[in-house]
Amino acid sequence: MSTNIPTADLFRSEHMRRRTIVNKIVEGAASVAALLAVAVLVIVVASVVSRGWGAINVDFFTKTQTLYSGFGPRPASGIGNAIVGTLIIIGIALLMALPVGILTAIYLNELAPRKLASVLTLAFDVLNGIPAIVLGIFVFVFVVVGHGQAAWKASFALAILMVPLIARSTQEVLALVPISMREASLALGAAKWRTTLSVVLPQAVGGIVTGATLATARAAGETAPLLFTSALYSADTMSYDPRQPLPSIPMFIFTSAEQADPYLHQQAWGAAAVLVGIILIASLIARWFADRSVRRLKGEK
Amino acid sequence: MTDVNYSTDVGVEKQTEQAAPEASPEVAAGLAQAIDPSLLAAKPPAETLARDRVFGIEGLTASYGGTPAIRDVSFEIYQRMVTAIIGPSGCGKSTFIRCLNRMNDVIPNFKTEGRILYHDVDLMARNIDPVGVRRRIGMVFQRPNPFPKSIYENIAYGPRILGLKKDLDGRVEKALRQAALWDEVKDRLKRSAWSLSGGQQQRLCIARCLAIEPDVILMDEPASALDPIATTRIEDLMHELKRDYTIVVVTHNMQQAARVADMTAFFNISKGGEGERSGVLVEYDDTKTIFTQPKDPRTEDYVTGRFG
C-alpha cells in the first residue's frame, strides 16, 4: 500500500544529532545566563544584608546620627532622620511626577496626533537616559544657586527623573485598553475627558502603579541630584521641613562610606540594607494593590 | 449563522406560508434556499405602517483619508420601525450606521459630504455637538462591550454622566427590564458585568443604551458574536423595543434582516474608475419587497444567495 512513500527522514540521522547538540548548547547558555543574573542579585543583596545586619537595631531606625569625638563610649546613633528625609523627598517627588506623568501619557495616547506622539515618545526615552547628575546640576543652576538648598528641590530633580518612567509605562497600558471600551462610553454621550477618566484610566491602574513603583525605586536610590540640592543638612537633628535640606539614606551612605571609621562603614551597609528593604516593601505593596485593582475590574473580588 | 429554523421565534404561524409567495417564480425559487418565506408572511404590508421620518439621508458620501467608503447615499428612516442595512462585507454598512451618531468623528481623516437630517436638523452641520447627538442616538456594537464594572454600574454609567441621579435604582431596573435581563441579574447587580454570558452581556449593553432613554438605537451587527439562542433573544428584544424606539440594525445575516426588519436597505460595493471600491445604496424598500420582488438584479442576486 504505502510502499512508495519515502520514509528515510523519519529515522534518526546525523542531522538530528547535530540538532540535538545545538539545542542543548542554546538551552544551556540561556539557563546559565538566567542563573548568573539571579546569582548577582542574590550576592548583592546577601552581602548588603550580611554586612549591614550588625548595625540594625531599634536605635538604628529611631535615632539620628550623632557626632562622635572619638573618646569614651559611642552614643547610640541611627538613620531615623535619613529615613524620614528620604520618605519626604520621594513623597513630594511622587506628588509632582505622578500627575504630570499620567497626564502626559493621556496626552500621548488619547489626544496627540500620531506623528507628534511618536516624536514625543522618543523624546521621553531620551530623557529617560539622561544621567541623574545632569538633572542634578540643572536643578542646581536654576533653583539652588542664589536660593539655597531644600528638600523640595531634591524632589523636583527626582521628579524630572520619574516623569518619563511613569509616562511611558502608563502610556503602554493605556494603549492596551480596547477601543471598544472607549466607543461604549462615547456612544452613551460621554465627553472624551469623561471617557478617559471614568473608563480608560481605571482599567490602566495596574500599569500606572507599576510605573510609579519603578520610578520610586529608581529615584529612592539616586544620590547625584541630592548632592546638589539636599546635602547641607544637620545630621544630628530630626527635621521634617521640606523647605530645608533634609538628610536622606543615599546621602548617608555616601558620606559615611567616605569616613575612615569602621563603625560608620557598618552603618552605611545597614542603611543600604534598609534602602533595599524599603524598595522591596514598596514594590510588594504596589504589586498587591495593582493585582487587587485588576481583580476588582474583572469582578473576581 | 446556519439554517436554524427561527420562524417560531417571531411568532409566525406555519399556516400563513401560502400567503407569502407573491414573488416572481425565479426569485421565489432562489428564496427557497435563502429565506424561509414564512418569515416575511407575517409582516404587515409596509404601506399600512405610519411613515414618520426620523432620518433623512441626503447624498451622504463618507471617506477615510480621501477614499470614499460610501458614496452618495440617500434614503429615509422611519420612526418606530426596524430598518435593516444588509450587504456584502466592505460595502460600508458599518461606516454608514456610525455616521448616524457621529461615531466616526473619533477617526482621524474621516470626512463626510451630504446631509443627515435628524428631525429636520442636519447632524453633519458645523454647529452640531456630537456628544449631544450620541445622547439621543444610542449604539450597540458588534461585540458586547460592557465596562469592567458591576452590572449596576454599567447601567448607571450613562445616567450618571448625564446628571440623571434621581432614582438611579429605578432607572437601572427599568432599563434591565426593558432589555429582558432583569430576572436573570436582579440578585447579582453587584457582580461584574464580565461574569455574564455573551448574550447576557449584549442585552446588558442594550440596557445600558436604554438607560439614557434615547430616541434611536443603532445596532451594528449586534448578534454576530452570539450563538443562535442568544441571537433569538436579541431579535425578540428588537421586536419589543420598536414599539417605543426607532431601530437601525446592520446585519450580514439576511435571515435576520427578514426576521426583524420592517424596512431593508441593500448596500453593495461599486467599483468605480481606477479600481476604486466604495459602498452604494442599491435598493431600499419594505423588507418583504426587498426579499420577494427586488427591483434591482443585484439585490436579487444577493438575497437569493448567489453572492455575498
Strand order of the largest sheet of chain B: 6-7-8-3-9-10
Instruction: Quote the beta fraction of chain A.
Output: under 5%
| Approximate strand percentage of chain B | 15-25%
Query: How does the major sheet of chain B shape up?
Result: 6 strands, mixed
Largest sheet of chain A: none
Q: Please, how many domains of chain B?
A: 1
* Average pLDDT for all residues of chain A: 86
Oligomer: heterodimer
Portion in helices of chain A:
over 70%
Helix content of chain B: 25-40%
The beta-strand count of chain A equals 0
- Structural category of chain A is mainly alpha
Rg calculated over all Cα atoms of chain B:
19 Å
- CATH class descriptor name of chain B: Alpha Beta
- Shape summary of chain B: globular
State the secondary-structure class of chain B.
alpha/beta
Reported CATH architecture of the largest domain in chain A: Orthogonal Bundle
Short description:
The complex is a heterodimer of chains A (301) and B (308). Chain A is an all-alpha fold and 301 residues long.
Structural notes for this entry:
The complex is a heterodimer of chains A (301) and B (308). In chain A, 74% of the residues lie in helices and 0% in strands. By secondary structure, chain A is mainly α. Chain A has two domains: 14-55; 80-298, MetI-like fold. With 308 residues, chain B is α/β, with parallel strands linked by helices. Chain B has a single domain (30-303), classed as 3-Layer(aba) Sandwich (Rossmann fold). Chain B is built from twelve helices and ten strands. Chain B has helices at residues 25-34, 38-41, 93-100, 130-136, 151-161, 168-178, 182-185, 198-210, 228-241, 254-260, 287-292, 297-303, and strands at residues 53-64, 67-78, 82-86, 110-118, 121-122, 137-140, 216-220, 246-250, 263-271, 277-286. Chain B has a six-stranded mixed beta sheet with strand order 6-7-8-3-9-10, with helices on both faces. A four-stranded antiparallel beta sheet of chain B has the order 2-1-4-5, with helices on one face. The interface between A and B is medium-sized, with 24 and 31 residues.
